[in-house]
Design a protein that fits this description.
Structural class: mainly alpha
Keywords: Membrane, Transmembrane, Transmembrane helix
Oligomer: single chain
Order of helices and strands: HHHHHHHHHHHHHHHHHHEHEHH
Low-confidence stretches: none
Helix content: over 70%
Number of helices: 21
Number of domains: 2
Distance between the termini: 65 Å
Protein name: Glycosyltransferase RgtA/B/C/D-like domain-containing protein
Length: 455
């Protein structure tokens, strides 16, 4: 079997795995928020989202995507699957963008090792199919990197312009995607100074990037004030600081010895990193350094803000930068497999690395698959049965048990709205869903819930 056939087979098998494990109709709390929000018109999406803690671009993009792909169905079950597909398409585009980027650095992209290593890595599988903004933010950050790398090669001002545009889209997708994009622009500005390029172009670009956020800046400030008074993220302590660096490398293991899993995975990645600095091109090493720094600086920024103001940062907010790190690591591993006799490397060490990564990533895929099956795929049958019962119920108002988990309550609320019925939840506290007592947001978002049911 030739290389192209192997790559095609790998892509097919991974795609099937994604379809089996992640394209399910059950939705957890934040995904329920998303599906409820995109059920409103574009103006209300912006208005309601301004009461939350995220910028609105992802929700607008998802609604547009659903309008052109799910116009033929009223089934929310189908729309949820299509919404997951949207994130997966974005993840594929991220991979292809990064493949083009490393190709410009003189390294082949999009081979089977890179593809499998990237999509099966911890957290990538989960967040690349979630109905949230993380996959879109990762795509924009990869596009910023791609354009800055193009400028580094050609010094054509158009690439700075596009980098700033993509950075601005990132800032309207997630605030810490904006932080990551800002750090990337700054680090390339420093790099260009060392390269003796004209720094005015990127300096003006950074200023434009900041100015382009002004229209939403007032709303962002109001959201920050709301967060400072009440938010669900726990206080900063040593354990949380460690988790902010390692949780993305641990995926679903975080609450069950996941730190050890994450550390094992990160230790395995030290060897390829050292190998890259000894064996790969100057351009690749320079870009790798920036990618690693963006991840670290984004995390440190989140921790610093959490300490100085109030807790506002968790590990998944650095997912866009993490996705870039994982892709570059798997690119290095791919090169090591092709050149095992380079410095600090031989067949034995490369084989040990390959076995170690296979075990670690295999454990992640196995446990994450089990988690998805038990918590999302199997409950799909109960969800479908419940929705069918709600349809057959002659009452227009469905009473939900307030003692259910918040995930179950909002999931059922969204599905009940899709069949044009209302919800009553006795003695309901909206803080269980939003992490704060924002009744205006809750009842605007879930507008089929009877307001008299709240405490």
């Amino acid at each position: 079997m030739n290389k192209k056939a192997k790559l095609t087979l790998g892509l097919f098998l991974i795609s099937i795995a994604y379809m089996l494990f992640f394209m399910h109709p059950t939705i957890w709390r934040d995904e329920s928020f998303t599906m409820a929000l995109v059920g409103h018109n574009y103006g209300d999406i912006i208005r309601l989202d301004s009461m939350d803690v995220h910028p609105p671009f992802y929700y607008i993009a998802l609604k547009f995507f659903l309008n052109i792909t799910a116009f033929w169905t009223n089934s929310l079950f189908t729309k949820v699957i299509i919404a997951r597909l949207f994130s997966y398409i974005l993840a594929i585009l991220t991979f292809l963008t990064l493949s083009k980027t490393v190709k410009n650095l003189g390294v082949p992209g999009a081979n089977a090792i890179q593809w499998a290593g990237f999509f099966l890595a911890p957290s990538i599988m989960r967040y690349s199919t979630q109905i949230r903004m993380y996959a879109l933010a990762a795509l924009f950050l990869s596009l910023v990197l791609n354009q800055l790398q193009h400028y580094d090669n050609s010094q054509k001002i158009g690439h700075i312009f596009l980098a700033v545009i993509f950075a601005s889209f990132a800032s309207y997708t997630h605030y810490f995607a904006a932080v990551a994009a800002g750090w990337m622009l700054f680090l390339y500005f420093v790099k260009f100074q060392f390269n003796r390029y004209d720094g005015n172009a990127i300096l003006r670009g950074i200023i434009v990037f900041l100015v382009m956020f002004v229209p939403w800046g007032v709303v962002a400030f109001a959201q920050a004030q709301q967060v400072s008074s009440s938010y669900w993220i726990p206080p900063v302590n040593v354990e949380n600081i460690i988790n902010n660096f390692v949780n993305l490398f641990a995926d679903v293991f975080t609450d069950n010895g996941g730190q050890y899993y994450a550390i094992a995975f990160m230790v395995l990645l030290i060897y390829p990193t050292i190998w890259a600095y000894l064996n790969m091109s100057k351009k690749f090493k320079s870009t790798l350094t920036i990618v690693l720094l963006v991840f670290v600086l984004t995390t440190l920024t989140g921790i610093a803000i959490s300490v100085a103001v109030r807790p506002i940062y968790i590990a998944r907010y650095a997912y866009p930068a993490y996705a870039l790190v994982i892709f570059f690591m798997m690119t290095i591993v791919s090169q090591m497999m092709k050149k095992p006799l380079s410095r600090l490397s031989n067949y034995f060490m490369t084989s040990i690395l390959a076995v170690g990564l296979t075990i670690i990533i295999g454990m992640n895929v196995g446990f994450l698959g089990s988690n998805q099956f038990n918590n999302y795929i199997m409950p799909s049958y109960n969800l479908a049965d419940s929705v069918e019962q709600y349809k057959e119920n002659p009452n227009n108002v469905i009473h939900l048990n307030p003692n259910q988990s918040p995930n179950s309550i909002v999931q059922k609320t969204v599905y009940i709205k899709s069949i044009n019925k209302r919800v009553y939840i006795k003695n309901f506290n909206v803080a269980r869903i939003l992490g704060k007592d924002n009744q205006k947001l809750f009842y605007g978002l879930f507008d089929n819930v009877d307001q008299s049911s709240s405490k």
